[in-house]
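Session log. Operator J.P. requested a structure for one protein chain; no other inputs attached. Running the standard single-chain path with token output.
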Amino acid sequence: MGSITKTNGAVNAQKVTEFIAKTVFTVCAVLAIFAVASMTVYMFAKGAPAFQKVGVAELLFGTVWKPTADPSSYGIFYIILSSIVGTACSIAIGVPIALMTAVFLTEVADKKISAIVYPAVELLAAIPSVIYGLIGLMVLNPAMYKLEKQIFAGSETHQFTGGSNMLSAIIVLAIMILPTVINVSASSIRSVPKELRAASLAMGATKMQTIFKVTVPTAKNGIMVGVVLGIGRALGEAMAINMVAGGSVNIPLPFNSVRFLTTQLVSEMGYAEGTHRQVLFSVGLVLYIFIMLINLALMQMKKRSEEQ
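Structure written below.
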């Protein structure tokens, strides 16, 4: 009789524990959904009025940004284009380097080398963005200025930027996304079952063929997550870009001083008022929509690859 009572008590305790755990998880999920929904509603509530006041076409496709002029102009097309070009180029440069580094650390390097390189990669992730911007300002920008003078020597139309340009911003962003993509990609590659590698080698494939035709394709969903996080890091970076990109609203050519969506907010939100301030909230709304669309698109790609 006593054993039955103890068993019933253990079952009841287990049910209570499961109920508490389920309740905690449910509350956390609801809070996460509420946070995302609240931010979405807030951004649309603050950013939408400027589209009505200024006009969607003028705001999104205008190329002149003069918020304090009379009459004022609020065109952010070049700012949007700079963000897209800068992010795309940094991803195109950074992702292949990050993927090759992850493959090296997990499949090629011996344990001693990996034990040295991997902590260095993690250290890169811990460095504040302002430090990247400071190093870019003190080291990269002077080098870019020398290159700029060599390329445009004798030109009377080129406006020299002192090395603060789109190319500097792309290089800094490409470096900043490396640790995120490397860490996620390396974890995904390590999770590939060893049996797949062994089967590929048993079929006569070389080690490199096994890596790039078996291991990496198997880990592609996890690698895609790393790419998404890298894109989010590149799109959302402000401080480092503000220090190395120059801060002028120009067409995003390599040696032009440019301004991104994030740096636009950082540069002018402190003193903006009236319509100017509303337009800056619209800039934030555009950035928010961009990030959401990119995440949704990559999630669809991931879903299709899983179905295939």
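Operator note: The first strand starts at residue 65 and ends at 66.
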